[in-house]
Predict the 3D structure of the following.
Amino acid sequence: MTDDFRKAYDRLLSLSKEIYLLNSCMSLLDWDQKTYLPKEGVRHRGNQLAFLAGIRHQKATSPEIGDLLKQLEESPLINDPDSFESANIREIKHSYEKLIKIPQSLVEELTRVTTVAHEVWAEARKKSDFSIFLPYLEKIIQLKRQQAEAVGYERHPYDALLDDFEPGATIEKVAKVFADFRQELVELVKAVASSGKHPDTSILQRNYPVERQKQFGKEVASAIGYDFEKGRLDVTVHPFCTGIGPGDVRITTRYNPNDFAQAFFGILHEAGHGLYEQGLDPERYGTPCGDAVSLGIHESQSRMWENLVGRSKPFWKHFFPKAKKVYPEALKDVKFDDFYLAINQVKPSFIRVEADEVTYNLHILVRFEIEKAFFGGDLQPKDIPAVWNNKFKSYFDLTPPDDARGCLQDVHWSSGYIGYFPTYSLGNLYSAQFFAQAKKELGDLEEQFAKGEFKNLREWLRKKIHLQGQRYRAEKLVEVVTGKPLSHRPLMDYLKTKYSQLYQIRI
Ligand code: ZN
């Protein structure tokens, strides 16, 4: 009897592995499309990807998976909910049941509408005219509502969408954590703005030759532990990290010869994602326990290396002298404190992707509150620009001059990614909570960073998070690793301590 269960489980994992292998082929094609594909090859690439997506869908919804899952319901393998076996079964079941509930016709219509909507959105943004995008957004919302109804949810249809990016998250829990830190965040931004201190960021806009940016970026990525024998760094328009599989995790960036920060922190960010992917258990490849937990947890890893480590004083104690050697002209007359302040400038601005680590979360709050309202029917899509601008005024004390710098700036909604934005802030919240715990357990991390030592932190993250795969959902993982449920406290404490010192303010 037990043998039968073991056989069913092994068969389930081998089917899972086939889906992962197909996914990884698609990821490689996608990486190639974003880096090296000749312009004329785009249509053929589209055909290749659509073909593979078809096979993947067939495999992922095959009745055999359903039968095996049913068989395993009785199995002792699921007795301990925290075992790797039980987690694999739970997560395969979760994706399978979701997939078979969404009608194929709906999937196809969403693909069709979002493909066109992407072009329309780009045009609307260019002309800064929300009315061009409005009918498409309305259609997308309608289709996503159908999807939520098909998949099902306990309380709020938005939960069904959140689940695609942050499995197990609910609007109620997310809204609570966000509400807790909104007021404190707004006050911190205001206090910084009235500090009268203005970093000289022009020192970051001097001449930073691209070749040297590349060399320095690679050096720093290696120093934190990103393994170039198992990865590479290439150029793209919208930087990303992609895990192709064990031994192959690639990162990308973009360079601006007159901007030190963009590529540097971009590389650190992507290398943080890369460390997560490189840290997964290769023995469990092809199963949920050999895969990342969620977008939020992924983002916690990138944000930790980019901000909590990469924008910290001890980190630059080690790297600033090196940076001076790499850029002798640009940094010749620059003092450490001025450099450190410049890379940590807090300044309310219109564009999310350019935002600093303090105001960034307010950008996400605006989007989350608006999504929640229009998806729940409390806000008519036509009223989005007005509501956006009002919220922006109250959080940032700024009014977007046009919709291109307001509600039209992000690509997400046009791709049907409603429920995605919260994962960015969740990532920041998780990262601060993980980092505070790491500091407790690992002694003086700052001293280690100042000596260029990052191994302790990296290995801690690997053991506590990466190697666990999807054994725990994000919410539980935070509790297991830190002993406490997710809270806004560690992030707010980190931001307040750091920025009250930098801007010499009392909060
Ligand atoms: Zn990221």
